[in-house]
Description:
- The protein has 187 residues and is α/β, with parallel strands linked by helices.
- The chain has helices at residues 5-11, 25-36, 57-60, 74-83, 117-130, 151-160, and strands at 43-49, 64-71, 88-91, 105-109, 135-141, 168-172, 176-181.
- It has a single domain (5-186), classed as Vaccinia Virus protein VP39 (Rossmann fold).
- Helix 3 (57-60) links the parallel strand 1 (43-49) and strand 2.
- The relative contact order is 0.16.
- One of its GO terms (biological process) is oligosaccharide biosynthetic process.
- This is Methyltransferase domain-containing protein.
Amino acid sequence: MSVTASALQAIYANGDDPWHFATSPYEQEKFRATRAALSHDRYEAALELGCGNGALARHLAPLCNSYTGLDAVETALLAAQSALPQGRFIQGFLPCALPTTRFDLIVLSEILYFLDADEITDLARDIEGRWPRAELLCVSYLGNTSHALSGEQSLACFTAAMPTRRFTLLRRTQGYRIDRATGADHA
Length: 187
């Protein structure tokens, strides 16, 4: 990962909501737009990579029979588990082994730019190999990431590694964009 584990821990050093998900009108609008971007009303199993404190999970989980969130930071996962007790939360620092559950929805919200280009390519290939029929939803931050790749550059790496998928831009604001690819079962 282009960002170190200690850097991620430092983000949460002063609390479990460093981006003010609970109080930010921008974040709340983005969560509603993310939910609205889904192509179905119901999913069997969802995986959110970089679930943070579970703020987005609270919007997604009611649409899913099961929800799994993965994040590198224990503080975030404890907050996520508290926010969504019925969810399954796994600590993992990408790149890492992904859960083996059969998912039909995979959400990557503002996580890709934390990875370098090779890690993004490997992640995309892993997802495609394991869950070729899953709907993929990518939310990409459009501001300065302070990382090697911007949100759009990291999204371009991800989509390029999945040449059989067609990603559609569903929403673009000044701050973020939402792109979706549906799998074979959802086409």
